[in-house]
Amino acid sequence: MAGKILVTYASRGGATAGVAEEIGQTLADRGIDVEVRPMHEVQNLDPYSAVVAGSAIQGGAWLPEAVQFVQKNRAALDEKRCALFLVCMTLAMPSAEKHRQFVSAWMEPVRKLVSPVAEGLFAGAFDLHKVPSFADRLKFRVSMLAGVWPTGDHRDWQAIDAWAASLPPLLGV
Ligand SMILES: Cc1cc2nc3c(=O)[nH]c(=O)nc-3n(C[C@H](O)[C@H](O)[C@H](O)COP(=O)(O)O)c2cc1C
């Protein structure tokens, strides 16, 4: 019998958590045993046959705690199939398709640690009020006023569902 799938994520503002929940729901709708957990709650990968891991992007990179999760669990992940995803605002910009290759490169440090069977690149959500640093808020406000930086929720649930629906054979379930 196929084992349990872990969908795990690192999120600061909640958008990536929502993407992870959606991926988990899509898998569960297909009769797959799935658990969705923030990375900081995951101590041990033994109960899972495969892992889907994702992070919000900040400063053109996975969140540090997400990279640390992969580093810490590298040996266990080597023995399982894993899929990776990221959530960012660059893919919410006009003509986002032109940026996909650029965005995909942000996965490279994680690709050096594990060999994913699939990668999902998703537009996220941005709320200036949730940015804790004053300096960052100022920077984003200027970019927003210049029309460069998008705000609001740009998560494309159809794209997320389609990616999640493609995972079972790749994850061996
Ligand atoms: C401090 C900060 C830095 C960010 N840096 C980037 C970035 O370099 N590139 C990008 O495309 N999005 C960037 N974003 C946008 C986030 O990736 C996006 O809002 C994402 O949906 C956040 O997910 P979360 O709510 O799960 O934290 C940044 C957001 C914040 C708050």
Ranges with pLDDT <50 over ≥5 residues? none
Q: What is the CATH class?
A: Alpha Beta
Distinct helical segment count: 7
Structural class by secondary-structure content: alpha/beta
Q: What small molecules does the structure contain?
A: flavin mononucleotide
CATH superfamily: Flavodoxin domain
Q: Which percent band covers the strand fraction?
A: 15-25%
Total beta strand runs: 8
Structurally, the number of domains stands at 1
SSE order: EHEEEHHEHHEEHEH
The main pleated sheet reads as:
6 strands, mixed
Percent in helix: 25-40%
Rounded mean pLDDT score: 94
Defining traits:
173 residues; alpha/beta; Rossmann fold; six-stranded mixed β-sheet; two-stranded antiparallel sheet; 7 helices; 25% strand; globular; binds flavin mononucleotide
Q: How would you portray this structure in words?
A:
With 173 residues, this protein is an alpha/beta fold. It has a single domain (4-171), classed as Rossmann fold (3-Layer(aba) Sandwich). The protein is built from seven helices and eight strands. The strands form two sheets. Strands 1, 2, 3, 4, 5 and 6 form a six-stranded mixed sheet that branches. Strand 1, helix 1 and strand 2 (34-38) form a beta-alpha-beta unit. The radius of gyration is 16 Å and the shape is globular. The termini are close together. Bound molecules: flavin mononucleotide. The site of flavin mononucleotide has 20 residues, from helix 1, strand 3, strand 5 and strand 7.
